[in-house]
Amino acid sequence: MMRALLFDLDDTLYAERQFVRSGFCVVAAEVEARFGVARREAQATLVGALRRGNRSRALQELCERHLLPVGIVPDLVDAIRAHTPSLRLPDSTVEVLRAARGAGWRLGVVTNGFPAIQARKIEALGLRDFVDTVVFAHECGAGLGKPERAGFDAALAALGMPADLAVFVGDDPRCDVLGARRAGMRTVWMRRGARSTGQVPGTAPDRVVTGMQDVLIAAEALLATEVAHAA
User: Fold this and answer.
1) Which of 46, 81, 92, 183 has the highest CB neighbour count under 10 A?
2) Are 223 and 186 in contact (CB under 8 A)?
3) For the segment 118-141, what is each residue's pLDDT rounded down to a tens digit?
């Protein structure tokens, strides 16, 4: 019996910090070329901000620390968005995707974010070798992205699968759990750090896991009854 297993991308299939650090490398090279700031020093400033939880102000901190004009921040943001990232799928993700494919699951990704940026991530991670479809949610429906159900519906249509035989895995209770539930799928929440779930109606998942190693077991359990009835 065919089943579908769909995933969010960032902080589900890989750690998004990989992308951030890759972008910081581009920024460090840029300020070295334009302002003579040593690449290693610039990167240390950026990574330091990330480690302190100040990712949103990392570029501003770079300007303040190295006396750069704050007006260059938009250019640096554009450089991050436009760069070809250096990314790698964790071994645990590769193992689960291969095991799921071997067990007959149809596989897909539904991701938020600028489609051009997300497409470069998908390419860098080599994900199209492992999944059957990739949907950029902001290209679907009203273009609002998850939790709008249009992206989930598009993925199910591409896989030729009904929602009651599909499980969605993601780290964001609102975007992933709520959105997938709206589309009629079972849900697995990938719990990361202190983020909570269930506080907003519709965001309580069917299963909770803390790593990719538990995803397939959770998905199998969620669809066991449906598969038995279909048989």
Assistant:
1) 46
2) yes
3) 999 999 999 999 999 999 999 999
